[in-house]
Amino acid sequence: MQFLCKEYQDGNPRVRSLVTETRLHLVPSLNPDGYELAREAGSELGNWALGHWTEEGYDLFENFPDLASALWAAEERKLVPHKFPNNHIPVPEHYLAEDAAVAVETRAVMAWMDKNPFVLGANLQGGEKLVSYPFDTARPVSETPAAAAPRPPDDYEDDNPELQETPDHAIFRWLAISYASAHLTMTETFRGGCHTQDMTNAMGIVQGAKWHPRAGSKWVHRGIKGVVTDQQGEPIANATIVVGGVNHNVKTASGGDYWRILNPGEYRVSARAEGYNPSVKTCSVFYDIGATQCNFVLSRSNWKRIREIMAMNGNRPIRRIVPGRPMTPRERMRLRMRL
């Protein structure tokens, strides 16, 4: 924060561009109580780990809800995405109960994330010198789809059957490499790690589930962005943006705007919203910094009115009236009600 403020005041063009064109949210410390305790104890004997714990005794690293397992269970039952969403996965009701073992810091951060449709987030912690990217939890072997393609033996994540890639695995891995390669010593793993052996195969990055499996645990201008509106130019909130070939959708914010981080390439993108006809177009992402503008205009659909008519008819098919055949009193009454 000090760096951004000072460089902005000094006229640094890179920082000024970042501040004026990006909505930034900064949290100095998620757990100030634990940080103070670890600071007083010192780090010589590994006491930095004390910073995980709040004054109430919660380990914030293990305190967030496990939404990955809920998604995988729904995938096993073939409920995704028609009955179970692949985005904005609902938090289990038992987790939201007032008497649930959830730290006040965890509740505050979850409410904050629910209010703001973040494009990208990262957190910094002491203890090791590497970039860890999702998933942070491993999928149980019994739930791993049998049809999953086997990995090559020399692949970076090797052929560990418990590991499960996110639908955005490629962009997450690229983000991790971009950060690690710009660090002065993160990719020079021959210099040694902070506390343990090198878990990154000399790359400075690792998938979280391979490093420390946990349940619940500046390239935002590359990809596509835009606004979804109706034919009168009014924004459509909560519309779904679907990228072909990527099984993870995003939603528009209250102003109809959306952002989607993607690697360079050509994508078939569709926008869908309740009460509107979907719209599909091809959007290209280039290697130059700067997201591609990809706006959608949706026309209203008649399906809402059709559902109302079907509901009035008991969700039964509407009987076709044959010309020349007299209508029964019951048919005449139903027709009058529909009209």
UniProtKB/TrEMBL annotation:
Gene Ontology CC: extracellular space
Region (Disordered) location: 142-164
Source organism, top-level taxon: Eukaryota
Pfam families: CarboxypepD_reg (PF13620), Peptidase_M14 (PF00246)
Signal peptide positions (record): none
Molecular function GO labels: DNA-binding transcription repressor activity, RNA polymerase II-specific; metallocarboxypeptidase activity; RNA polymerase II transcription regulatory region sequence-specific DNA binding; zinc ion binding
One GO BP: protein processing
Domain Peptidase M14 intervals: 1-287
Record bears the keyword Glycoprotein: yes
Keywords recorded for this protein, A-Z: Glycoprotein
Similarity comment: Belongs to the peptidase M14 family.
Name by which UniProt lists this protein: AEBP1 protein
Organism in which the protein naturally occurs: Lophotis ruficrista
